[in-house]
C-alpha cells in the first residue's frame, strides 16, 4: 500500500494536533508542516519528525493531501493554492467566509477530481456515531453548547465558532429543507456575537432550538432529541446518552410504560477518526461524509443566523439575553 504524503498548513493550537495524528498514522508519511510563525512551525516539525516550511507553496509541491488549519479568512486563498497544486484538502470549519468562496472551492475541486472534506469534527464524535441506530423521525431537538471563555477562535463569532457544529449535526439528522429561522444574540466580551440562540423550523414540521455561548461559567455539551414514541438525552461531556421508549404496556394511570436505557460510549479520538476518514477517501478517490456540499450547507444556515442577529436593533433584548446566558 502506497504511503499518502501529507502536510499541515497552520500548526497553532489545533493544527499541531492534526500533525500529531498524521505522524502516528499507518500508511501516511507526514512530509512537513507550514506556518507563518517559525518558532511554532519548527517546534511542531521537530516534535513530529518532519520538515518545517515557511512557505506553504513549497510544501504543496511535496504532498498528496493537506489539512488547512488557519484563520477562516485565509481558507479560500490557501485552499485555492492547493487546488492549483492538485492536492486533496481537509479544510477546518467554518469552510469559508462567504458562500461564494465555498461554491468556488466546490466547483474547482469537482473539476479537478480533488477530495474536499470540511472539518466538522463532531460528526466523528463517538456519541453521534452511537446515536444513529436510535434515530427515527426527530420532531424536536434542543441543543446546548456552552463554553467558558478562551482567547482562541475569537476571529469569528460564536455562531461560526461553536454553533455551526450543532447546525451541521441537526441538518444531518433532520432530512428536510429549512423553512424559517428565529434568532437572538449579543456581543458581551468580544466585538462579535458571544451568545446566540437560533430556532430552526423545517418544512416537515420538525423544530430545533440551538444555543451556543462562549462566556459561560461551565462547559456544557448536551442534546435532547424527541421523536414519536421515544426520547434521547445526550451528554457529550459525560460520554453517555439515555433512551426512553414508550411500550405497548399501559400503566394504571393509562400512560404507556417507559423502557429506559443508559448507554455509555468510549472516549474515542474524533480527530484521528476524522483524519483517517479523509485519508481513506484520498486513497479511494471517493466523496467524504462531510464534503464541501455539507460544509456549505452548515455555513449557509450559520450565515443566516448571524445576519438575522445583526438585524436586531433592540438593545434591551440584547441586555436581557446577556443576563440569561451570563448566569449559565
TrEMBL record:
Q: Which InterPro entries does the record associate with it? A: Gfo/Idh/MocA-like_OxRdtase_N (IPR000683), Gfo/Idh/MocA_Oxidoreductases (IPR051450), GFO_IDH_MocA-like_dom (IPR055170), NAD(P)-bd_dom_sf (IPR036291)
Q: Which residues form the GFO/IDH/MocA-like oxidoreductase domain?
A: 158-225
Q: Give the Pfam families listed for this entry.
A: GFO_IDH_MocA, GFO_IDH_MocA_C3
GO terms of molecular function: nucleotide binding
SUPFAM superfamilies hit by this protein: Glyceraldehyde-3-phosphate dehydrogenase-like, C-terminal domain (SSF55347), NAD(P)-binding Rossmann-fold domains (SSF51735)
Q: Which residues form the Gfo/Idh/MocA-like oxidoreductase N-terminal domain?
A: 4-120
Q: Which Gene3D superfamilies match?
A: Dihydrodipicolinate Reductase, domain 2, NAD(P)-binding Rossmann-like Domain
Q: What is this protein called?
A: Putative dehydrogenase
Which organism is this protein's natural source? Desulfoprunum benzoelyticum
Question: Taxonomy-wise, where does this protein's organism fall, top ranks first?
Answer: Bacteria, Pseudomonadati, Thermodesulfobacteriota, Desulfobulbia, Desulfobulbales
Amino acid at each position: 500500500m502506497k504511503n499518502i504524503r501529507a502536510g499541515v498548513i497552520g500548526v497553532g493550537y489545533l493544527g499541531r494536533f492534526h500533525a500529531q495524528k498524521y505522524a502516528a498514522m499507518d500508511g501516511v508519511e507526514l512530509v512537513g508542516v507550514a506556518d507563518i510563525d517559525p518558532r511554532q512551525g519548527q517546534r511542531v516539525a521537530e516534535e513530529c519528525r518532519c520538515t518545517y516550511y515557511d512557505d506553504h507553496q513549497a510544501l504543496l509541491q511535496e504532498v498528496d493531501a493537506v489539512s488547512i488549519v488557519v484563520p477562516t479568512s485565509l481558507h479560500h486563498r490557501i485552499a485555492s493554492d492547493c487546488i492549483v497544486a492538485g492536492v486533496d484538502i481537509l479544510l477546518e470549519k467554518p469552510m469559508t467566509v462567504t458562500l461564494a468562496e465555498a461554491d468556488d472551492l466546490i466547483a474547482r475541486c469537482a473539476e479537478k477530481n480533488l477530495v474536499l472534506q470540511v472539518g466538522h469534527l463532531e460528526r466523528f464524535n463517538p456519541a453521534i456515531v452511537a446515536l444513529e441506530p436510535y434515530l427515527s423521525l426527530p420532531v424536536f431537538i434542543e441543543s446546548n453548547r456552552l463554553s467558558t471563555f478562551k482567547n482562541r477562535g475569537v476571529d469569528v463569532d460564536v455562531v461560526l465558532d461553536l454553533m455551526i457544529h450543532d447546525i451541521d449535526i441537526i441538518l444531518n439528522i433532520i432530512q428536510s429543507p429549512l423553512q424559517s429561522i428565529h434568532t437572538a444574540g449579543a456581543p458581551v466580551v468580544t466585538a462579535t456575537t458571544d451568545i446566540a440562540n437560533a430556532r430552526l423550523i423545517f418544512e416537515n414540521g420538525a423544530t430545533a432550538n440551538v444555543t451556543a455561548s462562549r462566556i459561560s461559567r461551565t462547559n456544557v455539551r448536551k442534546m435532547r432529541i424527541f421523536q414519536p414514541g421515544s426520547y434521547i438525552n445526550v451528554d457529550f461531556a459525560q460520554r453517555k446518552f439515555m433512551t426512553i421508549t414508550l411500550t405497548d404496556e399501559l400503566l394504571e394511570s393509562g400512560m404507556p410504560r417507559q423502557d429506559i436505557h443508559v448507554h455509555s460510549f468510549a472516549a474515542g479520538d474524533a480527530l484521528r477518526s476524522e483524519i483517517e476518514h479523509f485519508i481513506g477517501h484520498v486513497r479511494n478517490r471517493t466523496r467524504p461524509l462531510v464534503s464541501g456540499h455539507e460544509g456549505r450547507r452548515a455555513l449557509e444556515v450559520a450565515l443566516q443566523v448571524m445576519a438575522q442577529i445583526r438585524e436586531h436593533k433592540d438593545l434591551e433584548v440584547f441586555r436581557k439575553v446577556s443576563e440569561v446566558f451570563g448566569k449559565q
